[in-house]
Amino acid sequence: MKRLLLVSILTFFGFVGLLSAQDKSNSMIQERVAYIKNNLTLSGAENNSFWKVYEQYLGEEIKIMDTYKKNLANQGINLGVSGTNKEIIASMSDKQITYMQDQKFELRKNLLNLQSTYHAKFKKILTPRHLQDMYDLEYKYKRELTKKKKEVKNMSPVNGGKKKR
């Protein structure tokens, strides 16, 4: 059963890797929206207004992340898969490290500005309880996605198909 799940996850990420950047972004948005929709119960009025605004928020979030990655790539910085960064950073120049650090702060600032802007919009649509539920679900979704990525990485052929300890 675990092997089937692993093969399914690897296959999923393999197909996602074949998609264009736009398709990948749309797919990621749809997956996140589906997760939140399946777990967030809204009233009719909230439901009608919320999803359009939420999808706009996710689209803008992805644009910010893409800009961050492009800015790093333009300086010859490709951090690759999480967990390999130490080796990559060790081979970088001080100038590249400083640039990467500056870009991380810019990324955080841009994401915080986006969250602040959309928090105000969400407050106009959702009750405080539903807004908190949405934030909790976003956190849970991101945590589960990170967990899946780690499982796939730990079971990859590079590791001999064995879990790291």
Q: Quick one: biggest sheet? A: none
Number of domains: 1
Percentage beta strand = under 5%
Give the helix tally. 6
The number of distinct β-strands equals 0
Gap between N and C termini: 21 Å
Structural class: mainly alpha
Which bin fits the share of residues in helices?
over 70%
Radius of gyration: 18 Å
Order of helices and strands: HHHHHH
Overall average residue pLDDT: 81
User: What spatial form do the alpha-carbon principal axes imply?
Assistant: globular
State the low-pLDDT regions, or none: 1-8, 10-19
Fold and architecture overview:
With 165 residues, the protein is mostly helical. The chain has one domain. 80% of the residues lie in helices and 0% in strands. It contains 6 helices and no strands. Helix 2 packs antiparallel against helix 3 (44-74), helix 2 (21-39) packs across helix 6 and helix 3 packs antiparallel against helix 5. The radius of gyration is 18 Å and the shape is globular.
Short description:
By secondary structure, the protein is mainly alpha-helical. The protein is built from six helices and no strands.
Keywords:
165 residues; globular; mainly alpha; 80% helix; 6 helices
Describe the protein's topology.
Elements: H1 2-18, H2 21-39, H3 44-74, H4 85-90, H5 94-125, H6 128-154
Helix pairs in contact: 2-3, 2-6, 3-5
